[in-house]
Design a protein that fits this description.
14% strand; single chain; Rossmann fold; four-stranded mixed sheet; alpha+beta; flat; 659 residues
């Protein structure tokens, strides 16, 4: 896609009051003028008609022209028309922004309430969405900025620059980079998909841990060597010590035999006392059984007495509930009789009214409603006879209904009186029943349960005497046996045994030095072997880290080589070292002739940006006009396949266009 600007027409846009049209040369156009002459306005107009923004990406900026006092001039349409060609096809893009005026209620003048914008392509009206789609099909905004503004790409964050450049050069796989290098192949096999940087971090961590452990081993060997020297300096004659321990253990065995003989005698006496205690406990258990038997009998009697009282109270409660129900039934029956009496009075009144009702004739019924003449006498007599018959039939039916109602009232009254009579009879019986139940309750409360006590039982009394006598005899025997010489003999033997044990333990502690010396010797050997193993592991890890470092450098050099082959003058540094850890981190810094972009002169920055644009245009196969600001600072602009539009600061007060 090759895009060239042909003309741009600006009307009432920013500082342009009225209409200004600029034609562009297909290869090079110079727009010259003093500061504030309108050079930036042209760039803003291009960006606005295409993307609704100004040259610095703002969507809200001062589009409206202003008068000499800085006030907005209203009722002017802001218009930009851009004529261009895209791959040889001509297009006319137009955008018209108009003020919206509305007259509020109760106000005499209209007020501006906003703006509307119209979009046109080749004078055909488009919606904003369709217009944006059309422009995107020509060239997306991000790409347009990147290939038309030399300062755009270097101003992007380093990560965004790096991503775009990496996309342009494509990706070289690790396998391709490793090639025939056996060390690199082995590294990739060990990585098995793990990130190289993380792999190196893990290696450096393991190397650091190994070095820490290796540094500690010499001091630990020295420490164990010093302890070994101290043990050897204080070691006894181990053979003599072993013989002496055996002699003491034989003496302890003899003491144990004497204690066993003495214990057998003591055990016999102890067993006899234990047997007597068992017999006494049997007697006590029988006494407890007798006590429990009396307690169970008394508990049963007390429960019977309490149940008799509770049953009497419950029967009274049931009777009182029945009395309340009977009284309620009497009250309900009386209420029904009162209602029936009221109904009877109403019935009598209605009977009298019906009985006194007589047929009456309205003379107006003798007049024809149509002709307003008196009806013939025969018709009148017939009609009168018919109406009187209907009246009498209706009255007769009402009397029949009243007679049926009278029968129902009589039945209700009879039923209510019977209910009252039954309830009163029942109430009388219930009150008599309650009186009898209250007497029964009083009798139950006054009675006492029949209780018996184990202390009066003859068997219990005899058992108590036997237990007391046998317990006293057992205690006297125990006191006698524990105070004889056997106890003293046993204490003496145990004291001798404890002394022999102490001597044997002291000798065993001395003999333990032999094992401790052996352990120290083994520990020193173990530490020396560990030191050798760790050094071997460290060498292997450092070799892996070196290989990983060389592979990382190869990746860096490969990426930077491929990226820098895209450009004529600029170079990109894609990585930088970590000073603290010795590793590297991704970056993206543009340089030209070895100087960072930020330190270049204005003219060098422009050519650096053009060099980048040439590469991006070639990669995307899309060319659009370069809008080169501050072009007065450069005398030798890099050649481009794209149309160049130079914005040059000069002494011209009005814009001068040189094609």
């Amino acid at each position: 896609m090759r895009i060239e600007f042909k003309t741009i027409t600006i009307k009432n846009f920013k500082g342009v009051l009225g209409e200004r049209k600029i034609s562009f040369n297909p290869t090079l156009t110079k727009i010259m003028g003093a500061n504030h002459a309108g050079k930036t306005t042209i760039v803003d107009a291009v960006q606005w008609v295409l993307f609704d923004k100004n040259s610095i990406g703002q969507t809200v900026f001062g589009i409206d022209p202003k008068d000499e006092n800085g006030e907005i001039i209203h009722h002017l349409d802001n218009i930009v028309v851009l004529e261009l060609t895209a791959d040889g096809t001509d297009y006319k893009l137009e955008k018209v922004r108009s003020e919206t005026w509305t007259k509020p209620r109760k106000k005499s003048e209209a007020e501006m309430t906003g703006h509307t914008t119209k979009y046109f392509v080749n004078e055909n009206k488009y919606t904003q969405k369709d217009f944006k789609t059309f422009v995107d099909d020509l060239c997306k905004e991000s790409l347009f900025k990147a290939i038309t503004t030399p300062s755009y790409f270097p101003s992007l964050p380093a990560e965004d620059q790096r991503n775009l450049l990496t996309k342009m050069v494509g990706k070289t796989t690790d396998e391709e980079l490793a090639g025939d290098n056996e060390d690199f192949k082995g590294l990739l096999q060990e990585l098995s998909g793990t990130d190289l940087q993380k792999f190196r971090e893990q290696l450096r961590y393991r190397i650091g841990e190994l070095k820490k452990e290796i540094e500690q081993i010499p001091s630990r060997i020295n420490e164990n060597t010093e302890e070994l020297k101290a043990l050897e300096a204080s070691k006894p004659d181990f053979d003599f010590t072993r013989r002496r321990i055996k002699e003491i253990e034989k003496a302890i065995e003899n003491i144990d035999n004497e204690l066993a003989d003495l214990s057998r005698t003591v055990d016999t006496e102890f067993n006899e006392r234990t047997k007597e205690r068992t017999e006494i406990n049997k007697l006590k258990n029988r006494m407890q059984a007798i006590v429990q038997s009396y307690q169970d009998k008394n508990t049963t009697e007390e429960r019977k007495h309490k149940k008799a009282i509770d049953d009497a109270k419950y029967e009274i409660e049931v009777t009182e509930r029945a009395i309340r129900n009977a009284k309620a039934a009497v009250e309900d029956g009386q209420t029904q009789l009162n209602k029936i009496a009221i109904a009877s009075e109403d019935f009598k009144k209605r009977w009298v009214i019906l009985d006194q009702t007589a047929f009456s004739w309205d003379n107006n019924q003798e007049i024809c409603p149509t002709c307003h003449q008196r009806l013939p006498q025969d018709d009148i007599d017939r009609m009168k006879e018919e109406m009187e018959g209907n009246f009498n039939d209706n009255k007769s039916k009402q009397f029949d209904a009243l007679e049926q109602e009278a029968a129902r009232i009589k039945k209700r009254k009879s039923d209510a009186e019977a209910t009252i009579k039954n309830a009163q009879d029942k109430l009388e019986k219930l009150e008599q029943q309650r009186k009898e139940q209250e007497e029964a309750l009083q009798k139950a409360q006054e009675s006492k349960p029949t209780l018996t006590y184990h202390t009066d039982d003859e068997e219990y009394q005899q058992l108590q005497m036997d237990v007391n006598a046998r317990t006293a005899a057992l205690e006297a025997r125990t006191e006698e046996e524990t105070s004889d010489t056997k106890v003293k003999q046993e204490a003496t033997l145990k004291q001798r045994k404890a002394e022999q044990n102490r001597l044997r333990d002291e000798l065993r502690d001395e003999l333990a030095k032999e094992q401790r010396i052996t352990d120290k010797q083994n520990r020193i050997k173990e530490l020396e072997n560990r030191q050798q193993t760790l050094n071997q592991q460290l060498t292997e890890l450092e070799k892996k880290d070196y290989t990983a470092e060389q592979f990382t450098i190869a990746k860096i050099e490969n990426l930077e080589k491929k990226v820098n082959e895209l450009f004529t003058n600029v170079k990109f540094q894609m990585f930088e070292p970590f000073i603290t850890t010795g590793g590297i981190k991704p970056t993206c810094e543009c340089t030209m002739h070895g100087t960072p972009y930020r330190d270049l002169s204005t003219s060098e920055k422009i050519n650096a940006g053009i060099d980048i644009i040439n590469a991006m245009c070639a990669f995307n196969d899309t060319y659009a006009p370069l809008l080169i600001d501050n072009a007065e600072s450069i005398t030798d602009i890099l050649p481009t396949r794209s149309q160049q539009i130079l914005l040059i600061v000069s002494r011209d007060k009005e814009l001068t266009i040189i094609q």
